[in-house]
Design goal:
By secondary structure, this protein is of the alpha+beta class. About 30% of the residues lie in helices and about 45% in strands. It is elongated. It comes from Saccharopolyspora elongata.
């Protein structure tokens, strides 16, 4: 192995790590109810998002951010009505070239839905395409395939944590 080969291998590993960090930032933005951080995970133009029958498809990140904000930021006084936790695992990232990659993830989700008094759980498979935009990896395409899902009532008298702090 020569120095150039080693440099290519390191660059590949760094790119894969940056893509993994991007996806983790995306899920963290979802959980922390941060529309700006959520928006920054996607390409500015040409997004191709399909979150399935529950949320639908989007060809523009702003339409996606609008729906995200409508749902995630819904509250009743000083409490959020939806408190989510997004867990992504088993990343499989393949670099196509220095500016393009594809990846798949297994995903587990739980929401405490105070609006409807239920806990929602789901698992999905993500299939993504990533592009470098302005020197940073962004999600260009994201399509999900539902795997499992179950909803059940929040037990009466359950001590439900408030979720992230509500801005005053």
């Amino acid at each position: 192995m020569d120095v150039r080969d080693l440099a290519r291998r390191v660059a590949r590993l760094e790119a894969i790590q940056e893509i993994e960090r991007l996806k983790y930032r995306y899920w963290r933005a979802c959980d922390s109810k941060d529309p700006d951080a959520f928006r920054e995970c996607f390409v500015s133009e040409g997004a191709d998002i399909d979150y399935g029958p529950g949320l639908g498809g989007f060809d523009d990140r702003e339409k996606l951010v609008e729906l995200y904000s409508k749902l995630a930021l819904r509250r009743d006084g000083d409490r959020w009505l939806y408190n989510d936790i997004h867990h992504g695992m088993h990343p499989d990232i393949e670099l196509i070239d220095a500016n393009t990659a594809v990846g798949s993830w297994t995903f587990w989700f739980m929401r405490v839905n105070l609006a409807d008094g239920v806990v929602e759980q789901a698992s999905l498979e993500y299939r993504d395409r990533y592009l470098v935009e302005d020197g940073k990896w962004k999600i260009q395409s994201s399509h999900v395939t539902p795997l499992t899902g179950v909803n059940f009532p929040i037990p009466e008298g359950a001590n439900v944590a408030p979720g992230p702090a509500v801005p005053q």
